[in-house]
Design a protein that fits this description.
heterodimer, A: alpha+beta, Heat Shock Protein 90, 4 helices, 5 strands, about 35% helix, about 30% strand, globular, B: alpha/beta, Transcription Regulator spoIIAA, 3 helices, about 45% helix, binds adenosine-5'-triphosphate, binds magnesium ion
Chain lengths: ~150, ~100
């Protein structure tokens, strides 16, 4: 589906866990122009946190790599968030998206993709082993401002 | 981000505060593990009123605490759950494993 892009911003940062909070704040800040409800804002922050944490934890298991987050405002109040890494990649995406599936340790629950899916309207995962992963999420925000 | 403990009889309340994300959960998990193994409470209550943000890292934290409490023969519940954390826990169906109030 092609969309007209009304505005966009992109940030890149190293895969340090301290940048998880930065990514959440940056996405919330970009989304603010859509006058989102508190609940919408919370959902966006949560979905971003899951996608970025995956890149920090799984994409670069024993090194610091680059993570890029692109935020776009599409027509009809659709917010698009793309989180991209050049890490290890996902061998079986279908399996990875199943609830409770995890290759992580006891600090992971295997619910990240399930949460992204339930908090956003669409979730697309593209990945190539050895090359990296791109997660694209879209959410249409309710129009509140009268015009 | 911190854990504050108060105890009343055999019931221990651990108040968690701050962001429970991958960045913050590890220290919180260690602290909580230590508290449980030292105090061995019959009932552990996690008070989440001051949690400013929670993602799937918080789910793992709750499930870890539940496992440890089960081992010790005690019970766990989470109380005063903010709306954002509640949505995360509901999406993951955590309520089936840990009573959420
Ligand atoms: N960016 C990524 N690069 C490589 N592997 C990934 C990436 N994102 C996810 N995965 C793989 O997909 C699995 C499932 O991801 P998901 O976010 O659902 O759960 P998790 O990260 O393991 O646990 P949780 O998100 O609950 O802490 C991961 O365990 C990992 O194997
Ligand atoms: Mg995850």
């Amino acid at each position: 589906m092609q969309h007209i892009v009304l505005d966009e911003a992109e940030v890149s940062f190293p895969s340090r866990s301290a940048n998880e909070g930065f990514a959440r704040a940056a996405a919330a800040c970009f989304a603010a122009r859509l006058d989102p409800t508190l609940e919408e804002l919370a959902d966006i922050r949560t979905a971003v946190s899951e996608a970025v944490t995956n890149a920090v934890v799984h994409a670069y298991p024993d090194k610091i790599g680059k993570i890029t987050m692109r935020l776009r405002l599409l027509e009809d109040d659709v917010l698009e968030i793309v989180v991209r890494d050049q890490g290890v990649g996902i061998p079986d995406i279908k399996k990875a998206r199943e609830p409770l599936f995890t290759t992580g340790n006891e600090e992971r629950s295997g619910m990240g993709f399930t949460i992204m899916e339930s908090f956003m309207d669409t979730l697309q995962v593209r990945s190539t082993v050895g090359r990296g992963t791109t997660v694209t999420m879209r959410r249409r925000l309710a129009r509140r401002t009268s015009q | 981000m911190s854990v504050t403990v108060t105890s009343r009889g055999s019931c221990l309340t651990a108040a968690l505060s701050g962001d429970i994300d991958h960045h913050g959960a590890r220290t919180m998990m260690r602290e909580l593990e230590e508290i449980i193994s030292e105090e061995l409470p019959r009932r552990l209550e996690l008070d989440l009123s001051d949690v400013s943000f929670m993602d799937s890292s918080g789910i793992a934290l709750l499930l870890m605490a539940r496992r440890q409490m089960e081992h010790a023969g005690g019970t766990l519940r989470a109380v005063h759950i903010p709306a954002q954390a509640r949505r995360v826990l509901d999406a993951a169906g955590v309520g089936r494993l840990v009573p959420l109030e």
